[in-house]
Amino acid sequence: NAGVMQNPRHLVRRRGQEARLRCSPMKGHSHVYWYRQLPEEGLKFMVYLQKENIIDESGMPKERFSAEFPKEGPSILRIQQVVRGDSAAYFCASSPGASSYEQYFGPGTRLTVT
Amino acid sequence: GQNIDQPTEMTATEGAIVQINCTYQTSGFNGLFWYQQHAGEAPTFLSYNVLDGLEEKGRFSSFLSRSKGYSYLLLKELQMKDSASYLCAVRAAYNTDKLIFGTGTRLQVFP
Questions:
Q1: What is the maximal distance between C-alpha atoms in chain B?
Q2: Residue A113: which of A76, A81, A75, A71 has the closest Cα?
Q3: Strands B60-65 and B9-13: what pairing?
Q4: Chain B residue with minimal CA distance to A99?
Q5: Along chain B (111 residues), what's the average pLDDT of each consecutive run of 10 residues?
Q6: DSSP letter string, B16-33
Q7: Nearest-5° Cα angle at A79, A106 to A86
């Protein structure tokens, strides 16, 4: 059973470009969470999605950031017009549903904005 | 507000026991988690506490006191591979599964 997959593992973008980060949850998992980890800081919650629904986006910046989890395919975190402050590791986690408490994390995407 | 505190760094010797403390102040509480994270890698789940008391799992144990807003992770028979960051996280609400993380405690194990 493959774990949570994220790609790309490393992404370099110039200021003003768009970044698209993909997350494929574990098989059978319908809940996806995105977290951001800035250098030397803790993980910060961004958004919680179920298939085709955003459940909690209280941690998402108001502008430039969006997330989706379509019926088919991976969850995508999209950052438009990236700035240097967006440089961070972005982790995706998945869980089977409300009855499960554990979130399984993917290996992360390290975004560098030059 | 939501606040989770844990020491920034700790050191210990191989074979010893170390206790990593975590205090939290959150608007709600629906479980406390400990994760291990090696540098450059994904966090991996270690333990979950939702009721007061001690949960033991091999060399690792986790304790929770909800009235004190306090938890600790106990690592016994330390090994070099235990050198990592240990993240304390709280699920603060019932209607969302989001986790609120502390900044993590970087543990260094010396021979």
A1: 45
A2: A81
A3: unpaired
A4: B97
A5: 91 97 92 93 92 94 96 97 96 80 95 94
A6: --EEEEEEEE-S--S-EE
A7: 80
B100 in contact with A, Cβ within 8 Å = yes
Three-state secondary structure call for residue B2: coil
The beta-carbon neighbor of B43 closest among A48, A58, A105 is A105
Tokens 């994270």 -> residue: B37
Q: How many CA atoms lie within 13 A of A104 on its CB side?
A: 20
Q: Which of residues 69-88 of B touch A (CB under 8 A)?
A: 87
Alpha-carbon distances of B39 from B64, B84, B108, rounded to whole Å: 27, 7, 12
The C-alpha angle A86, A91, A92, rounded to 5 degrees, equals 125
Q: What is the pLDDT of residues A40-52, one digit of tens each?
A: 788 999 999 998 8
Query: How many C-beta neighbours within 10 Å does residue B17 have?
Result: 13
Assigned token pair, B23: 């205090």
Counting beta carbons within 10 angstroms of the beta carbon of residue A27, is it exposed (0 to 12), middle (13 to 18) or buried (19 or more)?
Answer: exposed
Single-letter residue type at B81? K
